[in-house]
Structures are given as structure tokens and as C-alpha cells.
Write a structure and sequence with these properties.
The protein is of the alpha/beta class. It has helices at 3-10, 29-39, 49-53, 55-63, 76-84, 100-109, 138-149, 167-173, and strands spanning 16-23, 43-47, 70-74, 92-97, 115-120, 128-129, 135-136, 153-156, 165-166.
């Protein structure tokens, strides 16, 4: 039985999704001071298999969490498990991912994101800049298009006070869609 059906039939309460953001820096100044406030979250969940295994980076991320909030750095599968666990129903979670491929994994695992903010991805060789703060690889483009095909809004916006940018327009302008 699909998880969503189980929720409806059994009245299970699950954690609330405050916001979903792709930003390869995860928790940093803008996230800690602005996005956390704007979304009204009480938890931040950094979802990355790679970062969850990096003890130093994990420790540094957790040190910049704003007072009054709890944060976690977990592999994507563990984030999906936590989302489905009723014991975390008091969580209003800001989900942070380093890349869109991991967001696709989370959605396929059962986290029903309706919207994803593409906020920041640093340029690497082979990437294409689609905004002033977002560089995408061919793998990123494939995952972003998959999210759009799933009916999920993907908006480009570095700062909370900026207007939402249209992903498809940005990709088309660079010949990527």
C-alpha cells in the first residue's frame, strides 16, 4: 500500500514540510538568518549521503544552526525514513539538499515535495550557469526535468526577497531543455 494511502486510511500525522531547497553549501548565513525565519521551520534537515559521512563538514554545519532550531545531517534514505515516522510529527522541516538528484530520490522514497527552491550550486567543469548563483551539470538537468515531469514546481531564487525565477525559461535560454 502506498505510504500516502496509509496516511489517509490510518490518520497518521507526519512531519510538515516547511520548505525544500537545493543549495550545495547547505546551512550558511542566508539559510540560518533568513530562510529559517521565512519558512517558520523548527528543524533543518540536511540530506546528503556524502556530507553525512564527512565528520568535519557535518560538525561545521551543525555549529551554524540558529538558536532555537535543531538540525540534522543525514543520508537521503534516513531523511525519507524520518519523514514517514510519526514520532517526528512535531517537526516543521526545512529540507536542504546539495543536488537535484537527491531530491528526486527523496520524492521517489515518499517525501511529497510540491515545490523545490533551486538556490545555489557552485560552478564545476562541465556545468552551465543558469542564473547568477546556480550552475548545473547534465545530471542536474536530467533530475530537474524529472522533478518538473512529476508536477513539482522548481523555482530559482537565491534570496527569499527575490522574485521566483522560472527553471524552464532558464534551461531553455541555455539550450538545455
Amino acid at each position: 500500500m502506498p505510504f500516502e494511502t496509509l496516511i489517509m486510511e490510518r490518520g497518521i500525522v507526519i512531519m510538515e514540510i516547511a520548505f525544500c531547497r537545493i543549495d550545495d553549501r547547505l546551512i550558511h548565513g542566508q539559510v540560518a538568518t533568513v530562510w529559517a525565519k521565512v519558512t517558520g521551520c523548527n528543524r533543518i534537515m540536511c540530506c546528503s549521503d556524502e556530507v553525512a559521512q564527512d565528520t568535519m563538514r557535518k560538525k561545521l554545519l551543525l555549529q551554524v544552526v540558529p538558536p532555537g532550531l535543531k538540525a540534522y545531517v543525514v543520508p537521503v534514505d534516513k531523511a525519507v525514513e524520518a519523514y514517514k515516522d510519526p514520532k517526528y510529527d512535531a517537526f516543521k522541516t526545512l529540507f536542504l539538499f546539495t543536488n537535484p538528484t537527491d531530491v528526486v530520490r527523496a520524492v521517489k522514497g515518499g517525501i511529497p515535495f510540491k515545490s523545490v527552491n533551486l538556490g545555489g550550486k557552485c560552478f564545476k567543469d562541465g556545468d552551465t550557469m543558469i542564473s547568477s548563483a546556480v550552475a548545473v551539470s547534465p545530471q542536474d538537468v536530467k533530475a530537474l526535468l524529472e522533478l518538473v515531469d512529476m508536477g513539482i514546481e522548481v523555482e530559482i531564487r537565491k534570496l527569499a526577497n527575490e522574485p521566483k525565477g522560472d527553471l524552464m525559461e532558464a534551461l531553455k535560454a541555455k539550450g538545455l531543455a
